[in-house]
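Bench notes, bay 3.
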Amino acid sequence: MGTAIDPTIFKSYDVRGIYPAQINEAIARELSRAFVEIQGSKRVAIGRDMRPSGESLGRAFAQGATQAGADVTDIGLVSTDALYFAVGKFGFDGGVMITASHNPADYNGFKFCRKEAQAISLETGLGAMRDLIASGVAPAAPIATGVVVQRAILDDFARHCLSFIDVKKIKPFKIAIDAGNGMAGETVPYVFKYLPCEVLPLYFKLDGTFPNHTPNPIEPQNMIALQSAVREQGCDLGAAFDGDGDRMFIVDEKAQLVGADMLTALIGVNTLAKFPGSKILYNLICSRSVPEAIAQAGGIPIRSPVGHSLIKPIMREQNIPFGGEHSGHFYFRENWFADSGMIALVQCLELFSEAGKPVSEVIAPINTRFRSGEINSHVVDIPAKLKEFREGNSDAQIDYLDGVTVSYPTWWLNVRPSNTEPLLRLNVEGDTRALMEQHRDEALALIRS
């Protein structure tokens, strides 16, 4: 070892930075050696997204891993959920996805998992990898150098996604899909060739420079093209994926944005039809309508913090068949508890088919409250601001599951710190728009004072 490495590239859930200043081929080799050493992985799957630097970073990672004694299977250009599938289905000891998800084109990074697609976070391996690299101590020399083989997995991935639904139930929807020049442009055709839907493709050409818009569908400005396509082409619905294809958002037939928490409620209820009485997980940023819908359908709502490295262990420990987040991550027990935007989409198509009415009418009964969306503010003294929220709402129900949640009968808010930046993230929900806007504005005034 001995390559200088910027420790700030080690985030809570992955390794990510600017290429080539922070992330480059030398760093990829160091990371791969540390990964094999710390995790003891002898069979590793490597996938990558469409970013221009991905191919050379993949070669460097494979070189380092084989030098450390691991055998590498290169599965090529895939989505992150396809990488998780490959690790779980084919019994790899670990996997790495070379991606920076929705970040701008000059970024790249690495998402790691161990066997059965279990996420590796800062606390469960990334920190130890960082420290090993920083120590300058070379891993023990392997008995033998590993080998690299290629394997195509997207046909298998498509069949796996479709195993979650009854394909015969799917109606011939006209659906616009915005891949954002990301990996859904590669994976969607593999899945939809088995479905009777008419797909209107937007930005399916793989292009890691993102010439049309940033592939981050949680930002409303990145959904404008999809909304226009749905309106102009008379689609039944639209769907958008992020850059590495693991997150998914929907618009209805009126081109209105559908919150991922609403999809969490719908997929949760659909899951309960297959696994009655089960627990269904939702994170604490989701609408109150989500646990209400789950309970009404006979399920047990489980409230969780935000973040996949926290959610996946909870689901595994409690054997929860489905969980969802406001950010468009959806987790499935039969997918090794990993998230998949594609499985979520085909499940939505199944439940919309069974409902037999427009998407907006399916959503309407649960979409009765008003949400601010997540609002970020730069804050110098985050603990002091959190204390102000605690002390200024002493008559409320307050909990600290993730930041500070202040709950009243007709509205609630949550403020939580970013894991990687000096930001406070605010979410507010009210039973009326006026309540939401009032308490949103009051909270922002306090945060930014």
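Next record in the batch:
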Amino acid sequence: MESALQENVLPRQGFEGLDRWMERYQQADPDAPGALIGALSPRLLRFFRSQAASREQAEDLLQETWMRIHRVRHTYRPGEPVLPWVYAIARRVRVDGYRRTRRITLHEIATDVLPEKSAQAEARNQGPMFDTLVATLPEAQREVVTMLKVGGLSLEEVARATSSTVGAVKQKAHRAYDRLRKVLQIRAEEEPTGSAQ
């Protein structure tokens, strides 16, 4: 589990200039939006993908997030860390997207035939990837782990982004790590029987 999670941890030093870029964005600097989008989009896309959205849904949520950030950029307080502010917006966009999808799904007709899994998708899933592991977690734990490990946020920043306390974030992270450890142990125990084929 350590190696799977460590591969996805982002270095903190990559986020140091974001606060300044956000201030420049508020002051209508034409270079600021590109710098922010370039630095944050991969992390936000990974955040949305870890929340069980398809790639297309994740990209739509990312685009909606940037449109919302543009509309509410005046609410960012200079001097405050920008990551919790951005992730709070992304989280709200995800919830709104879920609600919108749910409303649409309630009006659609279900089909009896499901598409088969492609051989290429099965070949990629040989080892437990971060996204696969995190998908086994409840939504609140998945969100916290993704913000911590993929987004590179601190406990305090995750607490601010999720409107909760640092203690609650620690508890969710601890429970998530315990659950991931158990999932990896179960998979390790099942692996010898599966490889005998």
